[in-house]
Amino acid sequence: MRVGLYPGTFDPITHGHIDIIRRGASLVDRLVIGVAINRDKGPMFTLEERVAMIEAECAILSEQTGTEIVVHPFENLLIDCAKDVGASIIVRGLRAVADFEYEYQMVGMNRVLDDSVETVFLMAEARHQAIASKLVKEIARLGGDVSKFVPPRVLAALSDRLG
Prior knowledge:
Radius of gyration: 15 Å
Oligomer: single chain
Structural class: alpha/beta
Number of strands: 5
């Protein structure tokens, strides 16, 4: 069984994330969505809230793709999380050249730590390339419409959180 790991903070999950999950699911038999706890980023949503939002969206994707998709919170090194879930592939989404610079460094470090885990990059579809969770939160905080960037459940959660 080929297991992939798609890590991120998903604060909140966006249409861009969902696009990568859908496409990543076609590459593996089981896709683990690794939700980074990462307290340093000061997430808007708690870990439990992020996991619940991701699970709701991934239930739909799992049915559509026929691939098992599970959510796994983690706080350790990405490469150790990959070992923990039995992943031989790390799936990463790229939006722009700036993403590649960072990801290139990460792959190099991960290869030194464990060269048996491959990283696969998927380019975001053009319509999703500008979407970033950080920007979605900022637009929502300032009263802008983020309905084009997030699923309805996430939109409701943002509205509830921001009043």
